[in-house]
Predict the 3D structure of the following.
Amino acid sequence: MISIFIPGKKEKIISQLAIATVVIHLLGFLGFAGYWLANGHPILDIKHIVFFKAKNIEIFVDFYFDKVTAVYALVGSVLTVLVTVFSRYYIHRDEGFKRYFNTLLLFFLAYNIIVFSGNFETLFIGWEVLGICSFLLIAFYRDRYLPVKNAIKVISIYRLGDIGLILAMWMSHQLWHENITFFKLNDVSLVQSHVQEHPWQVIFIACVILLAAITKSAQFPFSSWLPRAMEGPTSSSAIFYGSLSVHIGVFLLLRTYVYWESFAVIKGLIIGIGIITCFIATLTGRVQSSVKTQIAYSSCAQIGLMFIEVALGFHILALVHFAGNAFLRTYQLLVSPSVLSYLTHDMFFNFTPDKQNNGTSFFNKIRNSFYILSIKEWNMDTFLYRFLWSPFKWIGTKLNFLTSNVGVILLSVIFILGLYCDLFRVHVPPVLFDYFPILFSFIACLLTLRAFAERSNPVKAWLMIIACQLFLALSISLFHEDFGRNYIFIYLSGSVVFSVVGLICLRKIKSLESSLDLNQFHGHSYEYPGLAFVFLISCLGMIGFPFTPTFIGIDILFSHIHKQEAFLIVFISLSFIFMELALLRMYSRIFMGQHKKAYHPIAYRSS
């Protein structure tokens, strides 16, 4: 916060402030950890701010401290100090010097919120902030094509993990009828009684937690995003994708072990994913030509082993393994530019080609097949695009009728009818309340997919996302009489304000520039950095980032969906996935990438 008031050219002051911040944190933590150990290292659980309280839900910040937190916090603090000092020289005279350090400190805040979190809601605050910091640091060289493109790819995978965590919170509310804390989950007899009474609910929670863990830790089949994330500066790659952020999936499994420890199927699934990741990542890393890609896949393989260790109950070993892997990968990434120059020099003078093996034995054919697959990274990127994102994009392109005059009138009539039903329930046949919520959530999902696939008009896409928010709120309000008007106000209060601000930004940029289609990158952050920042904040406010009441409203909204309402939860989850992707894609297309005006310098394609 202090650095906001420091001019960007004052590199020395900005870097010294960042270094002082992380050093004070490290010293404070060491003092606290020493006091904690001297007093018998008890498990600490402290409830802090209560954001919202009703008869069936309470949303609050809870902090928790045990040996897992101690290890993650210590490793994170030491590595952040090292990387911050290193970055002072590495980012010297870079155009985004201040932006880099602000984002790095914001990431460190998010990381600490995660590792100190005492419940899912607190963890999700840090989880969301960490994801956006990843997006911003991967796209740090925002005038280049590949960093921006890969930032969108990574945030797309992260969004699956976000929804996994939201669904885990949702089902936990259904299972416990309260905001369960990790401290309470340590009561094995209490957890086991709920597992025996509601086994399928617990299996669902375990599966969505596993989804969140494998997306965040780049495990199979989502491993391909990790080398793409290396487009950011080497120093941020070291702390994000070599050491801290990429190990959050292991932390999540450690923290929620009691949920799934009694299910052999879940343990087998985690072990299987770990084994497959180890096999694929090891082979892929050995044949890659980029040193960052080699280190990324090596880290994937080690994290796969950590998944296996956690599933088998070797938690102390997993913590030691995490610390060792984090320090090693950080060191490897920080020295990789120097090592490359040494190896290039050595190869120039001492290169001897390997002897060719032209044998046709069965073993050679198998080896060559693995070699080709590993060179192509086992086509995981293509697989995800073709079978995960492409179908939804295709559906979105087929929904043009929603933005036609007839479609807008029809949607308006349906919305007004639903609003009437919600306000005057006594005059409405009860059968409509069984089908209208599903219809409204389905329409919200279609609107989001259309906004995701929109290419010509960003204002139109923005308006469709606003309509999606309104339909989502109404779908829950119609189905549940106890979803009061104050809940709708909390959910819409943040998104309505930021939707207006974002719309003003779009109108402003459109009045300044002749063309604003989404088929290409425009790079307007060159000439309008203030407008770019305000629009980014508007996008984050629309999706319910943790600085707006909408964040609390989303939790309230999901807590009112019952476990038997399968269609409702599917449509609402899909809406939230593609809402964030549509908004961030819009931001990146308008304000990032090579500027379309020829008088700006032409940037490299990659970093």
